[in-house]
Amino acid sequence: MIENHRSGLLWNKFMANPEIQPMLNAIGFVPDTTTSVNNDINVSTTFELYQNYPNPFNPTTKISWQSPVASHHTLKVYDILGREVATLVDEYKEAGKHEVDFSVETTHTSSLPSGVYYYRLQAGDFIQTKKMIFMK
């Protein structure tokens, strides 16, 4: 028997025939009613701040992180002396993966000199800092 797996048309017609069902019952046939379930949930159980990409960058880089819980997130950029350069995120975020662009051209940091900068994520009790390099 040729089956259309997308629609199940042939199988459904076959099973709808009133003469077929009593014969299938007599031989103990039980149709397969399994369905596909995707249990692949992409929410991590740990916090993770990823390395920015690209690094070194000019003029834009992506910063991403993973949060297992919903909470208030703050992501800031600092220069090598610890002075705050930019606040990229300061808001409540759901659990999951998040990403933000840091662009020297679109922030109030258009006069940033080349050098080492740090980005710091704080989400609840989680705090982590990573280093990035801006090259003109």
Question: How would you describe this structure to a colleague?
Answer:
InterPro entries: Secre_tail. This is T9SS type A sorting domain-containing protein. The strands form 2 sheets. A 4-stranded antiparallel beta sheet has the order 4-3-6-7, with no helix packed on it. Strands 1-2-5 form a 3-stranded antiparallel beta sheet, with no helix packed on it. The protein contains 2 helices and 7 strands; from the N terminus they run H-H-E-E-E-E-E-E-E. The chain is elongated and about 85 Å long. A hairpin with a 4-residue loop joins strand 3 and strand 4. The chain has 2 domains: 35 residues, no CATH class; 87 residues, Immunoglobulin-like (Sandwich), CATH 2.60.40. It is 11% helix and 40% strand. With 136 residues, the protein is mostly beta strands. 12% of the residues are buried. It starts with 8 loop residues before the first helix and ends with a strand. The mean pLDDT is 83.
What features would you highlight for this structure?
T9SS type A sorting domain-containing protein; 136 residues; Immunoglobulin-like; 3-stranded antiparallel β-sheet; 4-stranded antiparallel β-sheet; 7 strands; mainly beta; elongated; 2 domains; Secre_tail
Chart the SSEs and their pairings.
Blueprint: H1 9-16, H2 20-26, E1 48-49, E2 60-67, E3 71-79, E4 84-93, E5 96-103, E6 115-123, E7 126-134
Antiparallel strand pairs: 1-2, 2-5, 3-4, 3-6, 6-7
InterPro entries: Secre_tail
Protein name: T9SS type A sorting domain-containing protein
Domain Secretion system C-terminal sorting: 53-133
